[in-house]
Amino acid sequence: MIFSTVAIALASGGDLFFLGELYAFGALTAYMITNLSLIKLRFSEPKLARPFKMPLNVRWKETEIPVLAVLGVIGCAAMLFLVAWLHEEGRNFALLWFAIGIIHFVAYCGYRKKPLI
What we know:
The chain is mainly alpha-helical. The chain is built from 4 helices and 2 strands; from the N terminus they run H-H-E-E-H-H. It has helices spanning 2-12, 16-44, 67-86, 88-112; strands spanning 57-60, 63-66.
């Protein structure tokens, strides 16, 4: 609801380009976190039954590292860095976006009584 309200405010002000950049930044962040989660799961639960595995896995010790997920993290991180480096508004809102996300995550973990990682 919060982000929808922000989107409506930006759209009503006519700044649709900036709104598009914000949502692209959010999508990139989500893709990077998804890939990082896949890599972490492979290390924390190496014996978990997986009916589907991504192609191009590299065996290391007792687990298989998904190469495409590693490339996804590198690519998304590079693009996020470029957004933060080249766009002042992107840099400012990136920090705000991450701060809000981290605060929400910590509060949610506290509410559910779950460890942070």
